[in-house]
Structure formats: structure tokens, C-alpha cells
Design goal:
Blueprint: H1 14-19, H2 52-70, E1 77-81, H3 87-95, E2 100-105, H4 108-117, H5 119-124, E3 129-133, E4 146-152, H6 161-171, E5 172-184, H7 192-199, H8 201-204, H9 213-222, E6 226-232, H10 234-245, H11 257-263, E7 268-275
Parallel strand pairs: 1-2, 1-4, 2-3, 4-5
Antiparallel strand pairs: 5-7, 6-7
Length: about 280
């Protein structure tokens, strides 16, 4: 495939460098099965003690929600932005009709781990899967290289949604679709960022950025993408995530404030879809 000439590699923000490098977030018991997301808990009984299998199922369910929304057609080429350990890319190949998935991540240590986790699949199906280092704001791919693009719980780390939107529009072919799922501020209230920094350490230390849904939608539309639609899925995410956190964290500790932020309207979880118009 043609790599975009002159593509540069932006520096990795320090908090991202540590969290997905030496700290190895994916190795923590809060996650499991190689996934690193809060999960979609719809259909899981939150009134009984949760198991590790419940946790893995919730994370797989979030990927299935995104991929079903993307609705890839047989033979299409897909790009995952912020692929982490590449387990979601493997789900796309196993359960959907994509011909090829490129997993892109900014962190070289994550890509090394993805190669190890998916070593058997890479050896068995070398024409169907690859992992590439790149940033959401500067993708190392040719124009129109992909039929569809998706990103699962990575956009909260992106530093420039405008650049991400421009790159999304560029690497998609005419008619190509994009789905972004992550947590965002639901409105344009400028006080939200400060409130999130008060409630949640990940916003205070710079790991997560308090992007708003109006900013993301405006960025996608200015990049020329059309049919931008926003759907809140917070009711399927936050109660289950908090229930799982309760195994490790006491009430009042900062990780439990994700549910609090949702309940007070400061933060929510969304699926955002868009399409590049036909030429």
C-alpha cells in the first residue's frame, strides 16, 4: 500500500507514553482478554457478583456494537485507529466480512504487544492483518486507502480532533464510513473540562482530554464528512463499569467518579458515525 509521503510521527503525550508503555494498562485486572475499554454491559446481570468472563464479554460487546454500526461489507478494507493490543481487529476479521484490517497505534510498545498477542493470526493470515505505527492526527496511509474506519475508546487521547477528522476524510474512499466510540463532554459548556479534572485523575494528569461532542461533530463536518450522527450509549456503559470498579475501588475514590460525572451530565459515552460523500 502507498504510504503518505512526508508523514511525521507526533510526540507521544507523557501520560499516554507511561500508561500504555511501562505501566501496561492492558495487564491490569480491571481489563481482560486483551481488550482495554469500559465495556458495554447490556444484557449482563449487574445485581449478581460479576466474573472475569463478564468483564471480557462486556469489552467484546462494545467492539461488536461498533463493528455492527460500521456494517462492513464483504471484501472491504478497514482501519482501526488506536488498536491497542489488536484484539478488536481480530474480532473484526473473525466475525465480520472484512478482507483486511490495519490496526494503527501511536505507541510502539502497544504494537509490539499486539504482534505477540496476534502472532498466530499474523502467521496464518498475513494478507488479512497488519499493525502500523501512526497518530490519529497524521496517518501514514494513502488517500482513499480504506473502505471504513473505526475507533474504540481512543479518541479521548487525541490531541487535535480537527486533524483527526481531516485525516479520516482523507484516508476513506468516497462513500467510506467511520464510527468513533468513546467518552466525551455532551455539550459546549466551557466549565466541563475543569469539573472533569476535579473528579477524575485521568483528566487532571492529561491522559484524557475533555473533548466535547459539538467539537467532534463540527470537526467531522468541516472535514467534508456527511451524515454525522451521535448516539449516547452511556446507560449501557457507566453502571456496569462502576459495578466492576466496585470490586477494587471504594465509593468516593476517583475511578468511581466516572458514573458520578455521567449522572451529573458532565460526561457521557457516545457512538458517532459519519460518511465521506461520493465523488
Amino acid at each position: 500500500m502507498t504510504q503518505r509521503s512526508g508523514a511525521t510521527q507526533p510526540p507521544i503525550p507523557p501520560a499516554v507514553q507511561e500508561t500504555y508503555g511501562p505501566a501496561d494498562l492492558g495487564s491490569l485486572s480491571l481489563f481482560g482478554g486483551g481488550f482495554i475499554n469500559f465495556g458495554s454491559w447490556q444484557g449482563i446481570d449487574l445485581e449478581r457478583p460479576l466474573t472475569e468472563q463478564d468483564r471480557i464479554s462486556s469489552q467484546r460487546a462494545l467492539y461488536r456494537h461498533v463493528l455492527s454500526t460500521l456494517a462492513p461489507s464483504k471484501g472491504e478494507r478497514a482501519l482501526e485507529v488506536g488498536c491497542g493490543l489488536g484484539v478488536g481487529a481480530a474480532v473484526a476479521l473473525a466475525e465480520y466480512d472484512v478482507a483486511h484490517v490495519t490496526g494503527m497505534d501511536i505507541h510502539p510498545q502497544q504494537l509490539e504487544r499486539a504482534g505477540r498477542v496476534n502472532a498466530e493470526l499474523l502467521a496464518r493470515e498475513p494478507e488479512q492483518l497488519r499493525f502500523v505505527r501512526g497518530a490519529a492526527e497524521e496517518m501514514p496511509f494513502g488517500d482513499g486507502e480504506f473502505d471504513c474506519l473505526y475507533s474504540v475508546e481512543a479518541a479521548q487521547h487525541f490531541r487535535d480532533l480537527g486533524a483527526f477528522a481531516q485525516e479520516t476524510a482523507r484516508v476513506l474512499r468516497p462513500g467510506g464510513r467511520a464510527v468513533v466510540a468513546s467518552f466525551f463532554v455532551p455539550d459546549a459548556d466551557p466549565a466541563r473540562a475543569g469539573r472533569l479534572a476535579e473528579l477524575l485523575d485521568t483528566f487532571a494528569n492529561g491522559l484524557d482530554v475533555a473533548h466535547s461532542i459539538p467539537t467532534l461533530v463540527g470537526s467531522l463536518e468541516r472535514a467534508g464528512l456527511a451524515e454525522v450522527r451521535v448516539t449516547s450509549i452511556g446507560a449501557s456503559v457507566w453502571p456496569g463499569w462502576d459495578r466492576w470498579l466496585a470490586r477494587t475501588w471504594e465509593p468516593g475514590t476517583w475511578p468511581r467518579n466516572f458514573l458520578r460525572a455521567f449522572e451529573e451530565g458532565t460526561l457521557d459515552y457516545f457512538t458517532v458515525t459519519a460518511q465521506r460523500p461520493m465523488a
